[in-house]
Amino acid sequence: MDRPSLTLTGIVLDTDDVEMLSEFYRRLLGWELDQDELPDWRKLRAPGGAGLSFQLDERYRPPVWPAGDDQTPMQLHLDILVTEMAPAVAWAQECGAALADFQPQDDVRVLLDPSGHPFCLYLPET
């Protein structure tokens, strides 16, 4: 069987506050709002790539990073390339992110968005 045409158009994050989380990423990344169906859904448009959407889940529970037994594990995370780590971390924190307690690598910083989703800021390989 030949592979049919498949195009990834976006990533969807669950949250119990669509407006708050979408505004966090809109400010952090500087992306434009593409769809606004508050309170249930919002989508940000990425320049030249897949978008990022936010979906209401009233039973949402944030993941724990790193997860222990009987804790909600991270299901996915976003990797965000930065050119300088310290200013990027400071900006993310100003936007509302929290630095995770556990940092597994020197050239990566794990942060938590306002809904508790981990995301990584990383430097280009040298």
From TrEMBL:
Every Glyoxalase-like domain range: 11-121
Any coiled-coil regions, as ranges: none
Signal sequence extent: none
InterPro entries: Glyas_Bleomycin-R_OHBP_Dase (IPR029068), Glyoxalase_6 (IPR041581)
Pfam family, one: Glyoxalase_6
Protein name, entry field: VOC family protein
Species name: Kineosporia corallincola
